[in-house]
Amino acid sequence: xETDTPTNLRKKLFDVLSQVANSDKGVExxxxxxxxxxxxxxxxxxxxxxxxxxxxxxxxxxxxxxVLNRMAHExxxxxxxxTAY
Length: 85
Fold this sequence. Notes:
Blueprint: E1 2-4, H1 6-11, H2 13-21, E2 27-31, E3 39-43, H3 46-61, H4 63-72, H5 81-84
Parallel strand pairs: 1-2
Antiparallel strand pairs: 2-3
C-alpha cells in the first residue's frame, strides 16, 4: 500500500483517485500528530470496500467460520452441483 501526505495528495488528487478506483490497492494518507502514534486514513476503491463489508458481515454472522470449517472437513460429494441446491 502506498503512503502519502495530505499535501502531496492535494497536488495529485485526481491521479490518486483514478489509481485507487481502478485497482485493488489502497492508499494510506498519514496525518502528523504532535505526539503518539501516527494516525491517518486509508483510501480504498468502492469495489474493494464493498468486498470488505461483505466479508465483515460473514464474519459477524458466523457464516465464514462455518464455510471454512466445512471446507476443511469436506468429503468428495459435499460440494457437487447435484447437492448444491
